[in-house]
# Entry
Amino acid sequence: MTDYKIPTEVEAAVLTRVFEQAAEADWLNLQDSDRTRLYQQWTDDPEVGGRLIGFVGMAANVRPWLKDGPMKEYQRARRGVGKYAKYVKRPAATIDEIIAKTLGGEWEIVPRSKRQKPMRAKVRRVGSEDDELHFVAGPDASFKHLVWPAILDRSGGETAPWTICVIDPFLNPLTREDKARHERLAKFLGVRIIYFNEM
# Structure
């Protein structure tokens, strides 16, 4: 991605608007054709493309800048991670909140164990050094990425249990078929699948 010199105040105004519209459109569940229309809308918008064009050179550069930078990081930004998180006005649950809601308050994140891509951490029961498990969370669209760390661990002889938390969005809930697929894979891999219902 080209490193354009976009002033902080311009980036803030543009990305606050873009992220708000992405949230309203349910970006993470949009088809590619709908995303393409939204990119075009942003390019044509005087408050987005109009503000960026003086820094990215031409209108044709607006979409690649948005797509390869902020929108590539949008999901992580919604969860409070990365340099674009400050522009999200309606944040989604963080991994800390997801763990507390799904596992309960008796579990804590092991210090310095948080990782990204996918969002994961090692957790332990409060007051216990031995009762630990790996926890990974993300949407169904990223399911293969959620199971990959567990596969790598298992293939390397790691025996700590894995809990895979699939985020189940309120606006686009998982189907029975989706959950049946998850359960088949969980049984095959020897991992636990749980769900986080996100409003």
